[in-house]
């Protein structure tokens, strides 16, 4: 009875190991696919991370966040996040005095409707509105790249955990089968020992 139970548990563990190996393979494929796509799409933009004077003009915290990537091609998720949040956003805030695209756009629409507004002021505000729109669009795309890169990293970690779990289950399967055989031999010995011996 014990032998049959051990075999049942062992074969169940083997089935679970097979599922984990399959899941690990799919997760590893997702990690590789996402990593390749993020790298290729970012590399196509031909953006070089700021360095030298471009960094010295930034606030210290932003410059520090970018220094590790200085001068390198922007082709990874972390670089995309750093460029979006510590370079583009800094220049957008500097140009708009910390105002968002929505705020500047509202002002532009009001000023455009005002017949007494100075045309040069309207044009300048329209240019700022366009700059913020383009900055927000680029930031959004870069941060999407960072988000997908993070998902790829998580998939890679999950793949490693799945493979480790499968390896553990395979070891336990081997031990379970070994224990089932020993239990089976013990059970047979007990049965043989229980048979009355002829005199």
**Rough shape?**
elongated
List low-pLDDT spans: none
The number of distinct helices, counting runs of at least 4 residues, comes to 6
User: Approximately how much beta-strand content do the residues carry?
Assistant: under 5%
Give the CA-CA distance, first to last residue: 31 Å
Query: Could you describe the largest sheet, including whether it forms a barrel?
Result: none
Alpha carbon gyration radius: 32 Å
The secondary-structure class comes to mainly alpha
If you average the pLDDT, what whole number results? Answer: 89
Total count of domains: 1
Number of DSSP E strands: 0
Helical percentage: over 70%
Topology order in helix (H) and strand (E) letters: HHHHHH
Please sum up the structure shown.
This protein has 199 residues and is an all-alpha fold.
Description:
The protein has about 200 residues and is mainly α. It has one domain (about 1-195). The chain has 6 helices and no strands. It has helices at about 1-45, 55, 60-65, 75-95, 100-115, 120-195. α3 (about 60-65) packs antiparallel against α4 (about 75-95) and α4 runs antiparallel to α6 (about 120-195). The longest helix is centred in the last third of the chain and has 76 residues, at about 120-195. The radius of gyration is 32 Å and the shape is elongated. The relative contact order is 0.17.
């Amino acid at each position: 009875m014990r032998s049959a139970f051990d075999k049942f548990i062992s074969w169940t563990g083997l089935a679970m190991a097979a599922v984990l190996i399959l899941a690990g393979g799919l997760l590893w494929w997702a990690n590789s696919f996402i990593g390749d796509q993020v790298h290729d799409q970012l590399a196509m933009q031909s953006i070089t991370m700021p360095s030298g004077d471009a960094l010295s003009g930034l606030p210290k915290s932003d410059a520090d966040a970018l220094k590790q990537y200085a001068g390198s091609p922007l082709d990874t998720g972390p670089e995309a996040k750093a460029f979006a949040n510590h370079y583009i956003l800094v220049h957008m805030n500097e140009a708009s005095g910390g105002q968002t695209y929505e705020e500047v756009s509202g002002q532009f629409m009001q000023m455009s409707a005002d017949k007494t507004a100075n045309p040069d002021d309207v044009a300048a505000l329209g240019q700022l509105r366009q700059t913020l729109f383009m900055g927000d669009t680029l930031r959004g795309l870069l941060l999407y790249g960072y988000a997908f890169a993070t998902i790829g990293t998580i998939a890679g970690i999950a793949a490693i955990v799945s493979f480790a779990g499968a390896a553990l289950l395979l070891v336990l399967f081997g031990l379970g089968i070994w224990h089932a055989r020993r239990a089976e031999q013990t059970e047979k010995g007990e049965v043989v020992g229980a048979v009355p011996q002829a005199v």
